[in-house]
Amino acid sequence: MSVNDLPAVDMPTEHIQETPVTIYVGSAGNKYVLPKAILCLRCPYFAAMFERGFKEDIEQTATLELIDGVVSVRAFEILAQWLCTGRVKSRETIPGEAISDAIEFSRFADMCGVTGTEDQVAERIRVIIRANRVKIYWSFVGETETNTQHITSEHIISASQLPRGHAAREILAMAAVEGYIQRKSHKFSKECYDIPEFSADLLMAIKKTLLTLTSGGHTIDVKDPISEEIFVLHGSLPLDIPKNQAW
After folding, report:
1. How far, CA to CA in Å, does 1 sit from each of 101, 116, 149, 166, 240?
2. What Å distances lie between residue 136 and 194, 228, 231, CA to CA?
3. 84-114 pLDDT, tens per residue?
4. Spatial separation of the C-alpha atoms in residues 29 and 9, rounded to whole Å
């Protein structure tokens, strides 16, 4: 497969004729021929591979071994697309799988030393969450959470392997804020105990959300960190209740 065949790649034609390198992902059946200059300019991993006299440099060919949750054909295709166009896109239409693609790509980009993808990935995850919510408002206690319908424990675990402060980690924590605030036992209660990276991200997301608290007259209102819309904090007491009548 050449750069012309990569899904969703709209690469400037002046780069197509540059000196190519061949990359196999997992097997000989997954072959990619891409411009060496672009790969090495934007990716330290490929620069080290093709410009420092190693075997790959001499042969202008490299093979990437598959790594679960990090290196896959899809992750490589999305990375190649970003290196060539500066855009992050995925063909996946199933929400949960699209989130998996985004996280896997982020981990592969991190492995390759590629920076600048974080905000695009986080925004893509945000769009997926917002477009596939079962309802548009925060849930009452006991109801289905609004923002975590297509986020899984596997997503949380995989994203926790990204560096602290990575936008993809943060967006997943932001999606979990509603459940934590609104429910006694939220969807990712176990992950909060088992995954310290997620706990830290969620704590920071909750802190930022609590800073948006305002009085809505007889309710307390809060801004949803995913939709950025204002919603009633269910179960909140009217702020003007006399102290001797409060719970």
Report:
1. 20, 26, 36, 31, 67
2. 30, 12, 10
3. 888 888 777 899 999 999 999 999 999 999 9
4. 20
- d(CA 170, CA 202) in angstroms, rounded, equals 8
* Burial degree of 50 (CB within 10 A; 0-12, 13-18, 19+): buried
**Which pLDDT tens digit goes with each residue over 143-200?**
668 899 999 999 999 999 999 999 999 999 999 998 888 877 789 999 999 999 999 9
Report residue 184 as tokens.
């006694």
- Answer yes or no: are the C-beta atoms of 80 and 34 closer than 8 Å: yes
Nearest-5° angle of CA 49, CA 98, CA 133?
Answer: 150
Which phi and psi angles does 22 have, rounded to 5°?
A: -110, 130
- For the entire predicted model, the pTM comes to 0.84
